[in-house]
Amino acid sequence: MEKEFLPLTEETNALEEVVLPLRAVSEAPVYYLDTEDELLGAIASLREGVGPLAIDAERASGFKYSSRAYLIQVHRANTDVFLIDPIPLTETATWKQFAEFCNSIPWILHAATQDLACLREVDLIPIQLIDTELGSRILGLPRVGLGAACEQLLGFRLAKEHSAADWSIRPFPTAWLNYAALDVDVLPQLAEVLLTELEKMGKLDWATQEFAHLLNFRPKPQSPDRWRSMSGLYDVKDAQRLAVARELWLARDELAIKLDVSPGRLVPDASIVSLVKSKVTSRSELASLSSFNGRASRTYLDTWWDAYSKGLATRDLPPLKLPHTGIPNHRNWPNRFPEADARLQLLKPVMAEIATEMEVPTENILQPDLMRRVAWEPEADIASQLSSLGARDWQVEAVAKRFTSALEQADQ
Predict the structure, then answer these.
(1) Does the pLDDT value for residue 1 go beyond 60?
(2) Residues 142-153: what's their mean pLDDT?
(3) β pairing state of 30-33 and 22-23
(4) Mean predicted confidence (pLDDT) in 352-356
(5) What's the pLDDT at 17?
(6) Residue 278: which of 241, 238, 252 has the closest Cα?
(7) Bridge partners of 131?
């Protein structure tokens, strides 16, 4: 499969002394809006646009507890860029009109799984979409961030400086709004070039199937035992101390929801684990524990002491280990399940070979878990097995016969 474009990596830029132009502001006019009248004007303008709706959302990850969108950017070819503050608008009748319009036409997003959930929260749900990040992976670009994709496919650099900002802040700094506008300003052109290149390389159908699959994307439900993921808790082997960890984590989570603050900004995981491992016996000892820190470690001292005491007193003790569901962890296969491991080791180089031939990352051709499931218990019809596990048609076509052949040779 011959490529007809030259990815401009940092290495080729250095060797050829290519200096790509910098796009620091949107080429389309940009309007910030937070009133119903302004939103009505944006809807009218977008109706006159051409092609899919470029859309993006900015959250306050790491600052707020919620994952809500604090800014939503929209743009179509031949229209302005509209930066919409959803906070005062999402409960209005005008927002319902906006959602009805957005939900009636295809979307363009970059890394769609990052934004689909928070957009769904405000009733924005695509009927069809193009994900330029996922499409870039299937195309075979070595770097697939929005800035890198623009460099490689459009020939310019993006000014990307505020990706980790706290977008709950009002008013927005002008520099932040410039950054936010760029995220959608480039998407119509990027999608057009990307789809053309995918078609040239015979990969457009693969990408189309993946885009359709994304319409069903939902974030994984949160585990009720996610408190166990705190770093450093792995070496706590006492059930009572694990109960203390659970109660402290739950108390912090409840407080974080109430204050809408990221839990780690109240008290870091490391502080909770240090308290779990401590031998404090009184509120005053807790107050003097230097390793228990964080901006809410003293202002909510009663909360932490109550949770700590509850954990020490409870008879509702968590198990030291959770029961395993699904197939065993593949890291344990060599010693415990050597036959399954042997099959897995046969499939790995086959998968790598397919990825090289197709110029697509292995994880995009087939999720690693699906390959492990086949290795664990291969069925007579591996194509049907993969389909039942959720693999798309193009993925099944790419790997099923090769997997079957490799496993049959092993059996012989």
Answers:
(1) no
(2) 96
(3) unpaired
(4) 98
(5) 54
(6) 241
(7) 109
